[in-house]
Design goal:
Strand order of the largest sheet: 1-2-5-3-4
Structural class: alpha+beta
Strand content: 15-25%
Order of helices and strands: HEEEEHEHHEEHEHHHHHEEEEHHH
Shape: elongated
Number of domains: 4
Largest sheet: 5 strands, mixed, barrel
């Protein structure tokens, strides 16, 4: 039970579950989570003529962060548990950033204090506030399972993936996913009767659901969206074509049944390399015959061509060699072969070296041979000693 309680507060940035009657010094710690922020202006004092910043960044459950206005006499620090303004009542969160860096963070997230009416920070959380907060967090899992049962009885085509209680336990936010529009008016009435709180429904996408639930990807690591990824860029099949990936939806889809976000990671590198590649639709003309394009190795900057009379044999050429042959063909000249004689000898030497190494590496008994020789030597020594007892 204690592990479940601690896990519920980990999603809010807490290192451990807060204790109402103790000082909250070790509740917040900088760790490897996607919403952790570093105050790089902490040791830099602002100019005297520059007004001090009274904005703070407060973290709530999972990926929910908001900006608030704090009174100057509060003197908030990173890790303080505060009671902030909500509608209705108040909410409990943890301060993640204070000072001038919050103003820059608001600028990057396009939050303008003049246009957006920011809510206020009431106070540091009291003992009663933390007690209500802890009891509300404990009920989130049971509330989610019960709400799923109620939705199934109403035959609603939706999935409730997460529940977040407000700090004063007067409101609960239900996050759900659905393919079509859902009429959940009756569901809200049933949930309000069952839990006795104000209900708010928020629809999220498949990727947001995966980032909240977490999981292990096909690479064997934890999902990027659940650890460090905060912005979801659109992923298209053009990126997969650029990297010459197999357009298999089962391999390209992630836990959210959408295209994997990691397809975009190396796409810019491939696009930069492909700028130097020549047009592969042009056939290469040599004295040995015409050659057509078959495949390419983008990272090694090689292009594979095959002769029309020998389509089963692919010859890998460097990009510069392909450009050279195309320039010669433009001047009505033809080389003897796709590869020069010096390159052919080098390739044959490399192939023989790789075959020898592969033969040694692929051998199943490569570790048994030395042991067998040592065993045979021992047997020979024993046989010699048995024949000549005088030596003993």
């Amino acid at each position: 039970m204690e592990k479940e309680k601690q896990h519920a507060f980990l999603s809010r940035g807490c290192h451990c579950a807060p204790q109402p009657h103790t000082r909250q010094l070790d509740v917040f710690r900088h760790s490897c989570n996607k919403l952790d922020a570093f105050d790089w202006l902490k040791n830099i004092k602002p100019p005297d003529l520059y007004p001090p910043s009274n904005y703070v960044e407060v973290r709530f459950k999972n990926s929910r962060k908001e900006f608030f206005i704090a009174a100057p006499d509060l003197d908030l620090k990173t890790g303080d548990i505060v009671a902030v303004e909500a509608s209705p009542g108040h909410d409990i969160g943890i301060v993640t950033l204070t000072g001038e860096v919050v103003r820059l963070q608001m600028k990057t997230k396009k939050v303008h204090p003049d246009q957006n009416e920011l809510k206020r920070v009431y106070r540091r959380a009291k003992v009663s506030d933390i007690e209500k907060w802890v009891t509300a967090v404990k009920q989130e899992d049971t509330t989610m399972f019960r709400s799923r049962e109620i939705a199934d009885t109403l035959n609603l085509d939706m999935k409730i993936s997460d529940v977040e209680y407000q700090g004063d336990r007067t409101k609960a936010i239900f996050y759900y996913t659905a393919d079509d529009r859902v009429d959940f008016r009756e569901l809200i009435r049933d949930l309000a009767d069952a839990f006795g709180v104000r209900i708010e429904m928020r629809q999220i996408g498949m990727r947001q659901e995966a980032s909240r639930l977490g999981g292990i990807g096909s690479c064997g690591r934890e999902l990027c969206c659940a650890t460090w990824l905060t912005k979801f860029r659109s992923v298209s099949t053009n990126s997969a074509r650029t990297q010459q990936l197999s357009l298999n939806p089962q391999k390209m889809a992630g836990q959210c049944s959408k295209l994997k976000c990691c397809i975009n990671y190396e796409n810019a590198c491939y696009e930069d390399i492909l700028k130097d590649f020549p047009d592969t639709d042009i056939k290469l003309r040599t004295k040995a015959g015409k050659a057509f394009f078959q495949k390419m190795d983008i990272l090694n900057k090689q292009i594979g061509y095959a002769y029309e009379d020998k389509p089963g044999r692919t010859i890998m050429l460097d990009v510069e060699r392909v450009k050279e042959i195309q320039r010669m063909n433009a001047d009505n000249k033809k080389p003897d072969e796709l590869i020069e004689e010096s390159q052919i000898n080098d390739n044959l030497a490399d192939d023989s070296f790789q075959q020898e190494n592969n033969g040694l590496e692929d051998s199943l008994t490569r570790f048994d041979k030395p042991q067998k020789k040592s065993r045979n030597k021992r047997r020979r020594r024993k046989s010699k000693s048995s024949k000549n007892p005088s030596n003993q």
